[in-house]
Amino acid sequence: MLLTILVVAALAVLIAGTAALLTTRGRRRGVLEPPPAARSGERRGAVRRPVGGTPPGTRAPPSTRPRPGRPPSTPGRPAGPSTPPVTEPEAPAEPGTPGVPTQLVQPEVAPRFRDRLGKARAAFGARIGGIFSRGRIDEQAWEELEEALLLADVGLATTTKLLQALRERVSSREISTPDELLAALREDLRSVLSGGERSLAVTSDGTTVWLFVGVNGVGKTTTIGKVGLLEASEGRRVVMAAGDTFRAAAAEQLQQWADRVGADLVRGGEGGDPGAVVFDAVQRAASKGADLVLADTAGRLHNKVNLMEELKKVRRVADRPPGKVAEVLLVIDATTGQNGLAQARQFADAVGVTGVVLTKLDGSAKGGIAVAIESELGIPVKLVGLGEAASDLVPFDATEFVDALVAPPDGPSA
Ligand SMILES: Nc1nc2c(ncn2[C@@H]2O[C@H](COP(=O)(O)OP(=O)(O)OP(=O)(O)O)[C@@H](O)[C@H]2O)c(=O)[nH]1
Ligand SMILES: [Mg+2]
Prior knowledge:
Layout: H1 2-31, H2 36-45, H3 113-116, H4 118-127, H5 129-134, H6 139-151, H7 156-171, H8 178-192, E1 207-213, H9 220-233, E2 238-242, H10 248-261, E3 264-267, H11 274-288, E4 292-295, H12 307-318, E5 323-333, H13 339-351, E6 355-359, H14 369-377, E7 381-385, E8 393-395, H15 398-405
Parallel strand pairs: 1-4, 1-5, 2-3, 2-4, 5-6, 6-7
Antiparallel strand pairs: 7-8
Helix pairs in contact: 4-6, 6-7, 7-8, 9-10, 11-12, 12-13, 13-14
This protein binds guanosine-5'-triphosphate and magnesium ion.
């Protein structure tokens, strides 16, 4: 009897132990180690994603972490069966640094506006729902459309212009159904957005400097990291300038991106002169034959110092030969609302903004600020952030953007 009890007890302990071990392994795999299917997906993701015809600086995100010091891959070289698979071990992710995604292998497919603008599209669709349920263009329809455009941040001046043109086409019976109205609105929005020169400029006589400006928290440093990755993946040598000397953490954040990109980072002391940092970065780039300086700046300063005056100084210094400021990119958070327009005016007056990077479109119920900026200020939106991953920074595509934003309630995006 005693023997039977002992045998049963031993068996129970053995079974419980095995179950605990399996559970622990399963949990570990869930956190640290992707299942085999996910891993093979990552490998597939390491294939370079071709994007044809995009301008410099707006090319396809790198398909793998760029490798410092290596020449770019030869375009057009066939990857036949004899081509060895990429077996470079992936560096361990640096966890926990805000604004520095730990994902080192880029996804194969670029994010689509339609997928990432779901929030904005749903908000717009909900506001014009009445027009479609009533099935006619009445006075209430105009009010609903106006509200939808204003709440999407298209801005009063542009909204008024758009609606006036549409009203005329309805009066002349060129447009008579809600579907036609929406199609005409899309067409008009595309034409408002058709004039912008969206490529990023480089200089042929000197060291190209791209200055990133914007109020705090909009995504300047993250954008520099992502742009650095794009450029390095195209074989350009990048120097980053930690011109935000207001916070020590800003240079640390940029350092992590620089490490990832394989770029040199030039930084100064906390509270130091940002102009001096950018100047040194240009010197470093020139002496090393680098192609591009990406300069970060502070989004706010100690109260005593006027941010705009400081930025003007930085720009002047960056423009001293061999440096040449080819782009001043204003980073705007799409969730900011109409304040983004005020920011654009202020920065444009102070430092001559050449283009806008509109970040966080993925989390915004708006997005129309892109239209307001282009139509009211004439500044082209060059890049947009559709998410936090490095590959989520993409060239602005006006057609995709309009089709993704303006759609009937619960309807397809275009
Ligand atoms: N969802 C989303 N988040 C973004 C995007 N771009 C940047 N972010 C996040 O925005 C946060 C702020 O980004 P930073 O790059 O630190 O912003 P900053 O302008 O440099 O901020 P300061 O240095 O404080 O002036 C980070 O958590 C980024 O990951 C985007 O397109 N989509
Ligand atoms: Mg920053």
